[in-house]
Design a protein that fits this description.
It contains 12 helices and 6 strands. The protein is an alpha/beta fold. It folds into 2 domains: 71 residues, Orthogonal Bundle (434 Repressor (Amino-terminal Domain)), CATH 1.10.260.40; 184 residues, Endonuclease, Chain A, CATH 3.30.870. A 6-stranded mixed sheet has the order 3-2-1-4-5-6, sandwiched between helices. Helix 1 runs antiparallel to helix 5 and helix 10 runs antiparallel to helix 12. The longest helix is centred in the middle third of the chain and has 17 residues. The chain is elongated and about 70 Å long. The N and C termini lie far apart (65 Å). The relative contact order is 0.11.
């Protein structure tokens, strides 16, 4: 079919919904316009949902189930889509992360998931529940995923992991002193591993800090590059090398300006002891 957008259900829940919708529509031999007429909406609305450009509402899902005679299939998919704690794009990133030969990450404000202790992760998500940003079930899903991601990186050969943390990551308290003490201990243990490099980007870097938001660059086994960045609402996995290379260059500049691992470890130890 001309100009028919390829869908990858593994990319995101919205793509999975769109793929199921397209399959059910194709099985009946209907165009998007014909399905739209049966649902009381426009064909362009059907197209936007089917291609992942517009999220399905509960009303859309019920109308699709009624028109396509699929019981409550699409309504259940919509509930699952809304209940997930993961940003769109992140599940695909995790599938690439587990394959990566090299992982370069930069984080602002909080310890990144790959370096978090279970108690730190649980404390972070408990506050999101308190603010009603997520549900308790979603918080549990996130904490479980942190552990699964860390476990997946214990493999042979081990991936090289370069972590640059903004100074705010270690200065921001999370939970009671015991939680932070254990987290500091884990950071120091991480720095001792043969396949890791830990650096702190101090506040005094000022404008010389090339990133203002978290960023991750993956080098895959075939040496291709993938980057991941996210806003508060969605994540984006970039596979186009021409877009990823400038991020890799900026990351190298960040590492050059950040503290050495020895100086970074000394800073963490000072913060852990409560000294300035």
């Amino acid at each position: 079919m001309v100009n028919r957008k390829a869908l990858d259900p593994e990319t995101s829940p919205m793509q999975a919904f769109g793929q199921c919708l397209r399959q059910a529509r194709d099985e009946r031999g209907w165009t998007q316009d014909e399905l739209g007429v049966r649902m009381g909406i426009t064909g362009s609305h059907v197209s936007a949902v089917e291609t992942g450009r517009r999220p399905p509402t509960n009303r859309f899902a019920r109308s699709a189930d009624s028109a396509l005679r699929t019981g409550d299939k699409f309504e259940r998919q919509t509930r699952a889509l809304k209940n997930t704690a993961l940003l769109e794009g992140f599940p695909e990133y995790v599938r690439q992360e587990v394959r990566a030969a090299e992982i370069r990450l930069y984080e602002v404000g909080v310890i990144p998931g790959l370096l978090q202790t279970p108690d730190y992760a649980a404390t972070l998500e408990a506050d999101a529940v308190r603010r009603e940003a997520i549900t308790a079930e979603q918080a549990s899903e996130r904490v479980t995923l942190v552990a699964e991601r860390q476990a997946a990186l214990v493999r042979s050969p081990s991936p090289l992991i370069f972590a640059v943390l903004d100074e705010g990551c270690i200065l921001r308290p999370m939970g009671d002193p015991a939680v932070m003490d254990a987290q500091f201990a884990q950071l120091l243990e991480f720095a001792e591993r043969p396949n890791t490099l830990l650096q702190i980007a101090p506040f005094r870097m000022g404008a010389r800090r090339p990133f203002s938001l978290p960023i991750t660059v993956l080098t895959l086994p075939d040496r291709s590059l993938v980057s991941y960045a996210e806003s508060s609402q969605r994540g984006h996995l970039e596979r186009e090398t021409s877009f990823v290379l400038p991020m890799l260059t900026a990351y190298h500049q960040l590492q050059a300006e950040a503290l050495s691992q020895a100086a970074s470890v000394a800073m963490i130890e000072q913060v852990r002891k409560g000294t300035p």
